[in-house]
């Protein structure tokens, strides 16, 4: 290349970069108020746009190697490398534009509907998955375009197309698990079975769906751990989705107390506590005796409705603490206890003397000295 060629390359790159700068200025200062995509485009594509402009300017300015009688050995390699760089930079630019468009959609959903809106969360999940699908397709097309810049691969194009059926079968068998996960991810998203920020219980673990991709689901557990599962687990196994139809839940507290507990008094105390609690959503609450246990205790169940899963846990804990204190201080005789009954045998004359401090039940006709003969006198001959 001559000096004039290098000057042409520099001018082409400068013009391309200047055009990108002008476009960014227009998007930032003129179009941002009337076009919602202006700010996301500038934020996402600033670096990729400059890179694509520079590489495109070089490719437009450099002469073709065929125009030289004796080109240097490195020039065809340089020209081929610039073609690959142009494909890569344009792919980067296309990806950033796709992400900018989806960012605008996601921010609008979050701003107008909020994460508590079931429809909003469903659309957010679907948009994020579609973004990953689009990125995958763009990446595959870029790889194919780069491969076809090599003459050997280009010459094999017809043969590759002819054997595409066989290759597809082999690839499908080899990637059966991966493809199954990808289709399972699309099934979860578009069947509305699972959404971003859903609260689910899976295999005894309670967590929030933090990320849903084509292959994995990431759960953020209550203790900040992350539980990563393949999406096929959720299509092949049952799981609880607490926010499938909404975020409202019912908080429940179970209590086991003695039979002597005054249920009406406890119910009044629960009602006063729940109705004044800021986490109660105002729908309903109740206290019921749900079981009589073989151990001699009764089971009380207190339920109260709340707005979301965090409020469900907090209200249950605070209600339990309040009832523990209330029953212990006001009705200590109602605390759980085991009763023991001693029954005096009819043949033991001095049973009461053996257990002077114990309460026991005597059979009919039994006195402290011993069994009577039915006339009020004892059978003690001593």
TrEMBL record:
UniProt keyword Transcription, yes or no: no
Transmembrane segments annotated in the record for this chain: 6-27, 48-68, 80-101, 129-150, 156-175
Organism, as annotated: Nocardiopsis ansamitocini
Alphabetized UniProt keyword annotations: Membrane, Transmembrane, Transmembrane helix
A Pfam family matched in the record: MS_channel_2nd
Domain Mechanosensitive ion channel MscS: 178-244
Stretches the record annotates as Disordered: 362-382
Gene Ontology biological-process annotations: transmembrane transport
Coarse class of the protein's main subcellular location: membrane
Domain of life: Bacteria
PANTHER family: INNER MEMBRANE PROTEIN (PTHR30566:SF25), YNAI-RELATED MECHANOSENSITIVE ION CHANNEL (PTHR30566)
Protein name: Mechanosensitive ion channel protein MscS
Subcellular location: Membrane
Cellular component GO terms held in the UniProt record: membrane
